[in-house]
Design a protein that fits this description.
Helices cover 68% and strands 0% of the residues. Helix 6 packs parallel to helix 9, helix 9 runs antiparallel to helix 10 and helix 12 packs parallel to helix 15. It is an all-alpha fold.
Length: 367
């Protein structure tokens, strides 16, 4: 299932690059298929059983953010098990995100491929609390562009999201990122190497946080090790096309570029705690989907456009396989499971998780 979606989106993206046309019907089919994959999954990808444990342990869930705790408590009170709760959350994330991809990204297959390669795996299928926050952010951007919603509404949604996952506090910089000017090449080319050096030094942002944020950040105490070099290089490769991409001011491309660059800066500054840096980055990097869609629709040299889009497709195909490899390792899958045959396990064949992965003893009661 995973590979059908991947190769289908690659083919559709290449068609979009070659012809400049979009196939809205196929876009909708793939979006629906992604929604079904998320809704009916079982034990995949990261954090599935961790959230299952929290769901059935209200005394532990009570220590988490208030709104998510109340939502899970309501589902338990009604009598729903975790698979229903998980399906509801995943379905809500995909439903809230749809207007952004259909209307703002104009049904771009490339933007959906970018989403599938990273945010879908990390948030929709993994850290679902952050997935909710990302979906709220995308829907808010859609309202801002299509319905004239102002940024006072952003403040309300921001507070709401912080009560679902406190990392959403770092999304406060998004309105600022949309308003700053990024057309001074000298400034940008000076700042980028500085923040990359900061990332390699391994500055720990948690030391500068307010006490209540520092306490939460301690949950993500996976201090960056050897992988930080690779992670920073990968993100630098993502940001490089943006440095010579100059959309008109007050356009989607202009806003998305600013958001992505600020997200890159925040990641590098926080890279001393690689896990926390990645969690902060979600809210910014999701707008790379809009970058891809904007380049696809931009009036520019045809050859340059095709090269940029092909670069994005190839890079995100690599990112997809990299994240599948991480899922295999993180999920304790057996040695015969590789990045080329990673299975999709649904709620209709739960027993397959025992055949494909080694489930930790303490998680067995939550299968």
């Amino acid at each position: 299932m995973y590979y059908i979606i991947l190769y289908g989106l690659i083919i559709l993206s290449l068609y979009e690059i070659g012809t400049g046309k979009k196939v809205i019907f196929l876009f909708n089919c793939f979006y629906l298929l992604l929604s079904f994959v998320a809704i009916f999954r079982y034990g995949q990808l990261a954090d599935y059983f961790a959230y299952s444990y929290l769901y059935y342990s209200p005394e532990v869930m009570a220590t988490k953010e208030l709104l998510f705790y109340l939502l899970s408590k309501a589902f338990r009170y009604i009598g729903f098990d975790y698979t229903i709760f998980s399906a509801f959350i995943s379905g809500a994330i995909m439903l809230l995100s749809y207007p952004f991809f259909r209307k703002i990204c104009r049904a771009s297959a490339i933007s959906l491929l970018v989403f599938y390669a990273y945010i879908f795996q990390m948030c929709v299928m993994g850290a679902v609390r952050q997935g909710i926050c990302v979906a709220l952010l995308l829907y808010l951007y859609y309202c801002y562009k299509e319905k004239g919603a102002n940024w006072f509404l952003f403040g309300g949604v921001w507070l709401f999201g912080c009560l679902i996952h406190l990392s959403f506090v770092f999304a406060i910089f998004i309105p600022l990122a949309m308003k700053l000017s990024y057309y001074n090449r000298k400034v940008i080319f000076l700042i980028v190497p500085v923040v990359i050096i900061i990332a390699f030094i391994g500055f720990d942002l948690t030391n500068m946080l307010l006490p209540f944020l520092r306490a939460k950040a301690s949950d993500y105490s996976d201090i960056a090790g050897q992988s930080v070099v690779f992670q920073v290089i990968l993100r630098t490769l993502l940001i490089l096309p943006l440095l010579n991409f100059y959309p008109r001011q007050e356009t989607d491309g202009y806003y998305a570029k600013g958001i992505c660059i600020v997200g890159f800066f925040l990641y590098c500054i926080a890279a001393g705690n690689n896990f926390m840096a990645g969690r902060i980055e979600y809210y910014y990097r999701v707008f790379y989907c809009l970058i891809a869609a904007t380049i696809s629709m931009a009036v520019m040299n045809r050859k340059i456009k095709q090269i940029l889009l092909l670069y994005i497709v190839i890079l995100h195909t690599f990112i997809w396989f990299k994240n599948i490899d991480f899922a295999i390792e993180n999920g304790n899958y057996r040695n015969d499971v590789t990045i080329f045959n990673f299975p999709y396990i649904s709620i209709f064949d739960k027993s397959e998780i025992r055949e494909k992965a080694v489930v930790e003893r303490e998680m067995l009661p939550y299968l």
